[in-house]
Amino acid sequence: MQKITNSSTETFLLCRRKHYYSYVKCIKPRWEGWPLFDGKVYHDAQHQYYSGVSEENVLLSIDKQFDSLDDQGFDTLKNKALVRGMFRGYACIYAADEFEDIEPEVSFSVEVPSAAIEGKSFIIAGKTDARVRRNVKPYLLEHKTTSEASITRYLETLNLADQPNFYLYGYNREMKNAAIGVIYRIVVKSKIRQLKAETEDAFLARLEQVYIDDAMKPEELRKHYFEETIYRSPAEQAEWFVELCQKAANMDNYFPYKSTGQCYHWGKACEFNTLCQGGDIGENFVKKSSQHEELE
User: Fold this and answer.
1) CATH no. for residue 145?
2) Whole domain around residue 187: which residue ranges?
3) What are the DSSP calls for the chain, one per residue?
């Protein structure tokens, strides 16, 4: 039976050829770039933090993941300082025991009947960072990292995104205690650069300290840490589900044509750019461990 996730749906809408490579051929670049690696390490740090691991040991885990990389150049050191700083600042703002109840990394997988094709069903699946209870009420918790210059534009885009619908719809059909909204915690990546007279060690220390200093400010003055809680009404959920069923029907049988207007999405070249230009898989791509690695 067809299984779709928020990530696979977003990829399909962005470019059918990219979806074909990612979810039919099930391949990915051997090296997926710093933004993805940073995000994975940061999310892992959050999982450990809310699972009872001490802040000191979480930082040791961050160091270990970066130190295990083959490339130990300046970029590795810079990104390690970046993620360490993001986590240290977060821990200054949010206590590990802040919620009345928390269950890290909650997955859902639920079969739903299609509203687009009679007699057809499909599975929607996903994994949230945590299920939490705050002021008695249940929520889902998601962490995001971004390099977006305008946090206002980022939050506007997030409020329009399908992900809150996807998570609330799937989670609430599988779990008994329905979540009423999704708490998003966003950390903005610092854009500071090394000064001419600054040593490498001094710059890395300053980069890490930027987040701690920002975390100490009143919430309204922070430039790196933001929180947004998103709700979806029953009417919004119903409209979204009808649209999702049509998307699922399209994803079940399609021709993988290129969406060339998206080859440089967010100003960056698509990871499959070389393949679309006639290159072969070669050594630059590897097989994914599963069709939906994002669920692992």
Assistant:
1) 3.90.320
2) 31-109+121-257
3) --EE-HHHHHHHHH-HHHHIIIIIS-EEESS--HHHHHHHHHHHHHHHHHTT--HHHHHHHHHHHHHTSS--SHHHHHHHHHHHHHHHHHHHHS-TT-SSEEEEEEEEEEEEE-SSSTT-EEEEEEEEEEEEEETTEEEEEEEEEE--S-HHHHHHHHHH-SHHHHHHHHHHHH-SS----EEEEEEEPP-----TT--HHHHHHHHHHHHHHHHTS-GGG-SSEEEEEE---HHHHHHHHHHHHHHHHHHHS------GGGTTGGGS--TTHHHHTT---TTTEEE-SSTTGGG-
